Structure formats: C-alpha cells, structure tokens
Please model this.
Amino acid sequence: MDLSSADFQEAVAALRAAVGDDHVRLSSEDRARHSRDTIPWQQTCSVVVWPGSRDEVVAIVTIAARHALPIWTFSKGKNWGYGATMAAKNGAAIVILERMNRILEVNEELAYAVIEPGVTYRQLSDHLKVRASGLWADCPDSTPEASVIGNALDRGLGHTPYGDHFAQLCGLEVVLANGVVIQTGGAPADGPAWHTFKWGSGPYLEGLFSQSNFGIVTSAGIWLMPEPEEFEAFFCEIAREEDLPAVVDSLRRLAFAGALRGTAHLVNDVLYMAMVMPYPRDSRGGEHRLSDEARRALRETHGFTPWTLTSGLYGTAAQVRANRALIRKELRRYGKLTFVDRSDLPVLAWLTRLIQRTQNVRLASWIGGMVKNLLIGRAPMAVLDLIPTTVDVLRGVPGDFIVRFAYFKSRGGRPSGNVDPARDNCGLIWFAPVVPLTRDQVNALFDLCRPLFGSHGFDFSVSLIVVNPRSAVALMQIFYDKSDAEEPARAAALYEVLCQRTLSEGYQQYRANVPNMHRLFQAVPGYQRLLDEMKNAVDPVGILAPGRYGITGDVSS
Amino acid sequence: MDLSSADFQEAVAALRAAVGDDHVRLSSEDRARHSRDTIPWQQTCSVVVWPGSRDEVVAIVTIAARHALPIWTFSKGKNWGYGATMAAKNGAAIVILERMNRILEVNEELAYAVIEPGVTYRQLSDHLKVRASGLWADCPDSTPEASVIGNALDRGLGHTPYGDHFAQLCGLEVVLANGVVIQTGGAPADGPAWHTFKWGSGPYLEGLFSQSNFGIVTSAGIWLMPEPEEFEAFFCEIAREEDLPAVVDSLRRLAFAGALRGTAHLVNDVLYMAMVMPYPRDSRGGEHRLSDEARRALRETHGFTPWTLTSGLYGTAAQVRANRALIRKELRRYGKLTFVDRSDLPVLAWLTRLIQRTQNVRLASWIGGMVKNLLIGRAPMAVLDLIPTTVDVLRGVPGDFIVRFAYFKSRGGRPSGNVDPARDNCGLIWFAPVVPLTRDQVNALFDLCRPLFGSHGFDFSVSLIVVNPRSAVALMQIFYDKSDAEEPARAAALYEVLCQRTLSEGYQQYRANVPNMHRLFQAVPGYQRLLDEMKNAVDPVGILAPGRYGITGDVSS
Model:
C-alpha cells in the first residue's frame, strides 16, 4: 500500500466520512504505536481506524473492498507477545473495535452476557459487581484492559471452570467480507436459544470465526459462571523437580475426577521468578542464562520451589469438601499444599491493594512474605507473594500484577500501574504447543524444547496449563532484552527452531504470533488449501486480515 | 439421474471396479430398502455402495465427480425419524460406511477411542467390556446398531455426562470433495494432541463437518468416560402437570450446580405410554387423539405420572453423596424420587434379559411391576417397568427396548428383537426445537406447539432433554399410523406447521429430517449464502450430499 497514492488517499477520505475524522489516524506516531509488540518482528500499518458501531464496521468493510485495502481488526489489541495490533504484512489498515463497548444484556437466570468487542474484563467485572450480579466472568491473568471477545476468539485461557474462553462463546453476530451481517446458529434474528445452545442448526460455524479471518465479530454471547456457594484457591509447592512426571499424572486423574474444575496452572521456577523479581543477571556467572545450580540457589534464597501449582475449588460446601479431599490425597505427597478460603479474602483484598500500589517489587514481595506468617504462621512459602492477585484471578477478578512478568528482562523495571509491555519495549515471545496430559508426553515435549532454550542461551520458562483432562497447553516464554545488541535475534532464532522442531513432531500450537502464522500449515497443504478455498469464496478480494493464522485465500497454485 | 443413461452405467461400472461387485447394488429391492424411513416423505436412490476403506471412499468421490453423481454418505443410516438413508432428492447414490468398522485405538490413559464410521454402539461397548476397559462409551436410547460417529456428527444425544455426542468428537479424518484427505486441527499427520485437544491451530473446523456436507468423515477420535467410582440412576415421577414450570427451574439449578451431570430426560405421559404399551386406540372415544381426561385415566390405570424424569449420578462416593442431597432437596417436592445404585444392578441385569426375551409387552410390564415390589416394596411405580434398560443406557450400555416406542401406533405390534421401524412401516417424525431452560421459555414453546398437535389430531408427545444448564432440546414425536388412509398426510401437515411457526419465532432445530432441510435457513438468506459459497468453493460439482441441512452450493442467485 503506497501511502501517497491517490487510491489510498481516497480510501482514507472515505473512512473519515464513515467514522468521523477523530477516529481515523495516520500520524507516524499513531502508526508506530499500532505496529509494535514485545516480539522481535515488526509490520508497519498504514492507518488506524476506530469504528463506533456495527454499521460503521460494515461501512469500513465496503470501503476496504472498493480500494482493496486489507483491514486487520482487533477488539482491543492487547494480545501482547502474539503481535498486539500488528498485521501480517506492512500497509494494512488497523481497525480497533474498542469504541464498541456496550454490555447489551446480562441474563442472570441463564448466566450469560451479550457484549461488544470493546468490552474489557475490568468493565464486565465491574458491571457485574455494581449490579450485585450472582454471576462471575472468567478472566485471564493478563491485563484487565483486554477484550473479553477478542481473547475468546483467540482462544485465550483463564483460571475458573469457565477458563476455556472460546468454549464459553455462544451466539455471534458477524460482519462478513461482503458486508452482510449474520448471526451464527442459523435461526432467524435473535432467536431464544441463540446464546444458550452452542451448535445451532446445520454446521456449527462459530469455530470458523476463531483464530481466523472469515468475518468480524461485532457482538457475542459469553457464558458466565453462577457464583458458587463455596470457593477456595489452592497452591501446591512441588518440592522436587523429579516429581514432575508424577504430578502430571496426578493432575490428569484429578481433572477426570472433576476435582480440578478450573484450568490448573503449573508454573516453573523461571516463570515464578519473572512474576516476583527482576531478572537475576548477576547470578548468570557470565553465561547467557542461569545454570541449574544458579536456579537452585535462587530458589533457596527466595524460598520457592521448582514447580508451583495454582487452581481453585468451586461448588457447594459438600462438593468442595469432597474435591478438596481428592486433591489433598493426590498432591500433598509433592510438597506444601495450601488452601485459601473465603474467610481469608478480606485480608487478601487489603493486601492486594497494598501490593498493587507499591512500585517496589521487593516491598511487594516482603508484604507477601508477611501474609504467610499472619495467615499461616508456618515455614516460608514463597507462593504467598502472589496469593492476593492469584486468588482474585481464580474467581474472575482481573488485575495487572501478574502480567508484569513481561518486564522480567526490562532494564527499566516494572510499572506499578498502566502496564503496557509493548509500549515499554519489553521482550517476550510466547510459544505454546499443546501436549497430551501424560507423564511421557509432557516429558517428551519438555525434552525436545528445554535443550533448545539452553543451546540458544535462554532460560526455560513455562506454565503447563491443564485445559481439559486430556491436554495441557505448554505455554513457554522466551524472555529477552530488547535493548540488548544480540538477544532479539537470538530469541527469534530460538522461536524459529522451536516452531520447526515441534511442528515436525506433529504438535499443534494453541495460539500463534502474527509474523509467524504463515508457517502453521506448511506441512499440511491439503488443509491449507481447504482454508484458502473457503476464504477465497467468502472474501475474494482478500480484505479481512489476509494471512491471519496463515489463511490467505490464495488458491492460484 | 437417468438410470438407463450410458453415463450412469459407466459410473456404476467404475464403482464396481473400485469397491467390488458385491458392494454395489441397484436392484429395486435394495434401492427401496435404502429409500424409506418412518417419515411420510420419500426419495428414491439410484444405487447403494458399500466402500471398505478410506481409499475406496476417495475412489468413490473421484468417480462421483467425474460423472456428476451426487453421493449421500451414511455411517449406518439408522437415524430413523430423520430420514434413515434417504437423500434430499431422487437419484442419488447412497454410500454406506458400515464395512469400515475398525476400532483403531483405545487409549485408556487419555480416555478416548479412534474408530471408523461403521463402528456401532454395541460393538464399542462390547469391545470395552471384553478388554476389561475402565472406560464407558455413552450411547443414545436408540438402536445399539447405530453408528457412534454418525450419531455424533448429527449431534445426537445420550444420557451420561458424555451425552452431548458431538462435543466428545476430537480429531477427524475427512475425505474432501476433491479427494484430498485431511486431519482436523491443522497439525502434521497423527500429531500427539490430535485426539485430546478440540480446537487445534487456526479456526476450529470440526463443526463444519457436523450436520452438513463439507466432507466425509472416515475416522474420528471420540472421548470416553472413565468409569466413575459410584454410579446411581434416579427417577422422579412428577405427580402434577402444573408443577412442570417449577421442575424446569429446578433442573436448571441442578445443572448449574453440577448435580445433574448427564443429559436429564423429562418424558411426558404420551411418550411414556409409547415406551410401555401399544397406542390405546380404544380410549380415544371416536376422536383422533386422547382427551386430557382419557390421558388422566390411563395414567391412573397404569400407574404413571404426567412427567417422568430420568438421569444419573456419577463420581466418587463423596461427590455422589453431595449431589444426591442436592437432587433430593430440589426434586422430592414434585413426586416419588427413586435412586437405583450398583447393588441393584445384578438383579436388574437379570430382569433386563427376561424383559427383552419376552415378546409380550404386558408380561414385560408385569415383570417390571414385580421389580418395584421386590426392590422397593412400596406403592405402584410404573417407572420401574423401564428401569432395567434405562439404567443400562445411563451407564452407556445400549439396548433396543426403548426405541421400540417407534412402534406405538403400528398395527403389527412390536418386535422382541431386530428392531427396525423403517422396515416395519412405523410412523414417526421427530420435531426438535431447542429451548432455553427457564419456566417461561418452556411454557412459551409448549403453548405454541401443544395446540398444533391437538388441532391436527395428534397427542402431544415430548421429551425435554437437558443438554446444558442453559438449554433443553424439546424432542417431540409425531406418532402416526402409516397404514391409515389419512394420518400420514395429517402428520406431514402438522410437521409443516410446527416448522413454520417455530422458525418464525426464531427457534433453532436441534436436528432436522432430510426432506425438510431445505427450509432451515430460508429466513436467513445471508447465512444460507455463506454456507453455499463455502460449499461451492470446496465442492464445485456438488457431489457430496447436496441439500443436506439445506446446503446446496447454489450461488447463482
């Protein structure tokens, strides 16, 4: 897209006419801000547009088709580490739906909300709180300013039993590339079961609009969780690295037994450090990364364990009692197991505020340390540093404390609020293959990836997220220093080799970053062809995010 | 399709060469047998083909494309009341996948099987039993000879926590119209998480292959349920018709609370009668249907209630105890509540055999009546007539006792075995709108449909199936006498008006019968267009079941 071309100028003029001058921006600063992320790749956009309504989205699509201008839509664009508001190629128009932020309905009886893409986790959580709703919205442990719909369409994960966000979507309104607005499910407009029954009549099509570019979702039903009678958070500090295989099998059994209803998160020591302290550069002994011994020493000094598990218990008092017993029986052999129930929450809420207000990580850590003595009165439990915010997330209350781990290797330290790792030049790439939840499978994947981190001079950082009784997402973090002369290139090289090696072993990626989506289906040309044929049929000009999740609509070959 | 045309003869010769002479049949008897069902509409096929492998399916697709011969694929074709092996138009080739009946894998640790479309419920159940598997397969209450994959792709329902059959599919192998074989999920072939993680990478496409015609599924992963420590069936005999609205709200609360984990079935008195006795023609008093008074009298005589609820409890002993308490608290106010636990099962198994062996419905009913005295020793409980087979279905053991309700109005009585209502000229049309699970919504739907049954001279027969905490399928049965001079036309007329009235109110249909699929998306042309554009792109000749679920690929308008 030549920004000085008459065609582009005409397109911009039409966009201004459609959504108003204030909502079309193409200053170099605006363009730069929407072309960056924490990943070591970049694509520069041509213009940024903020429509205010579904009809304005339709108008934008029509203009884009007329001028063959590719538009990349983002709800809020907070998917840091996956590309933020970056397009797959230079020159795209970035369309951000954050002005469309109405909560259209909350149905208390049937436990769902209907919302627009600009609605954030904070907004939904606050809305439910203000109206004294009996419903909880799940949230991820990322920023409260992220879009509920955007995250769900990218299949993001939270922590409660509603933590598989895509699985909670039910009933989408979608603007297609031809400007037509459809409702999924196949019923006439606003049918009674649109937001209560997922499959609809005929093919179930909602999956087609997740991790893809077949349409722009302009509103959606999202299932909410009736507040359980009882809620407890629990934490297990896995004392011995060598217990990991057994822990994996325990988690599978607990998930099948229904004791683990939320998406349990098993975090390793490096990621744990990233959450509570700056990167311990001094402990590296001149190497690019920490040695096993250095990590062990850090664990001892700071009082955390090789792996830390967090999850929640939800249900009636009797159900929680039954499931707590199962969890205790399976997990207590691995290390300290702590349950935090509702009576602890007021103290924790107070401490959360205190910790969130302090800019000083050491102080926050110290306060956390104090909690363990106040609350538990036993031996050091580093996991308690994170308890207040983790407990909040486990009941769907968003906060930006945890996501500050993106600043792990930042020379500038962490902000106390207004977290924005993309703006603040943090270095982070997610890499997230899916692995069956057995000891052998998890071992095989880690044995494949861990040495690649090591040989590229990076610390192996991972959270194993139990998404169903049969699978976990192995969410790996490549933390790197963007200001370093060579780390970004090394991080990119690690990412490349991780992709190559895991794809050749047949792993699916839970989610992918924009500049690398084109490689996803390279090994399966028949599958790529199917996607591109369908894309070409419904978007022949190729205006809706061409290249998102590798889908281009190119059927020429 | 002109059966005498040279082109058709060539196609048949090619099919014979591809799958063997024995597996291509076009005698008038073979064609007739695959052109009929219990519904009052008919389409005549041209030829019936039984491929023996995926590669033979590919060969058939290639031949079909060359000769522009529409092929309608069925796994087993047991979807009685929805069309059996009927195509939407005359002249199609019927392709039945029952010879592809290998169980390719059973993964005990991750609780899934990988099977071909010809695998039946009975086969899978027996296979698990023989190998002393710790896994249960869910089954519907229809014939044990139905296909596990076929039912799941049509989104059939069972009774256990795995009763939403489509939701248990994970990892499909699909033959596309261009002859290419793909695996869903986007990973390279046979990736480790193919059968454990539903969404894959990029758009979730499995929904595209259910209730549709975008490809032929030639194998699939199906999730199985680890046998729970405890299992109990329970039955609630709702004594008062006027309690239905309150019962609906109770069911929703129990489902949200996780006490109802299976797909509870709430059966009305007419359907109950259909299960245990021939249609009481003599009670009609000269009318087409039973009056409210006649139904009340029949209930009193035979000892059943206006509504009967059946579902199961699954989990550890403590979980079952907790959930039983919740169920007791919610439901006992409505009528007799009976729990049947494992210790009752040996006796029940013996009785099941006895009941299944008797051809005499009255004797079967009498034995059932005896059980209630032996087992419970209290007042008459008609629900016990059905207990043995219902308890089996609630733990995934298939049987054909229940599906004999399709013979309700048959003059020839019910068979004791080898049940086949399509062959036996039974009259049954399913009509199954989806309704949100609230008293007002269920009332509104029933108030819409019940009078239409009445005004067309049919008894309102329905099973309200709780498919998730927010929705139920209102599975209605139009039982009619196929041998009657005018009932078939009246039944068809009732179906037509039910479709019209519910579609104009915005209801989705859970599942539809073949000759009426073309009307599904008439009110939503943009949605119809989207489906047809995609269909046309991947199947431009229109060989894969054109018209299934209304998808034709016609984009000419």
